[in-house]
Specification:
The chain has helices at residues 2-12, 16-32, 39-61, 67-97, 101-110, 115-128. It has 129 residues and is mostly helical. The longest helix is centred in the middle third of the chain and has 31 residues, at 67-97.
């Protein structure tokens, strides 16, 4: 991994400029593997994280569930599914245009049991009927 390369470079040299250059390379590599700077992906990730936070707040605050809380839970669930499906579609479409192993790994982890890919393909079939 890039981290090991950085640590090894720090261990084998005492030249600050060499270490700084290795650190710059490490950061550049790390950022190139980050999907946070792709605007649609960043928006989806932000929304998903906000929804997760809303769910946590709801669960921590509620001891009894009235209709209002059930509606809020249902809204969080629907919005989460919508944003996750959108994120999956965006990343899948980007994957078909770029041969990025990190993107492939992220998609594999996000859809490890093929739930989202199966659901999105079945929704296409249903919409054609």
């Amino acid at each position: 991994t890039q981290y090991k390369v950085l640590v090894e470079k720090m261990r084998t040299t005492h030249d600050f400029e060499v270490i700084r250059h290795a650190h710059d390379n490490y950061l550049a590599t790390l950022l190139s593997q980050c999907f946070r700077f792709t605007n649609p992906v960043a928006r989806c990730l932000n929304e998903i994280l906000l929804l997760a936070h809303s769910l946590c707040e709801l669960l921590l605050q509620q001891q009894t569930w009235a209709d209002k809380e059930r509606q809020r839970l249902s809204s969080i669930h629907k919005n989460f599914e919508r944003h996750h499906d959108l994120l999956f579609k965006i990343l899948s479409s980007v994957r078909s245009h770029h041969a990025n192993p990190h993107l492939a790994q992220l998609l594999l982890r996000g859809d490890f049991n093929r739930f989202y890919s199966t659901r999105s393909s079945s929704s296409v079939v249903e919409s054609k009927s």
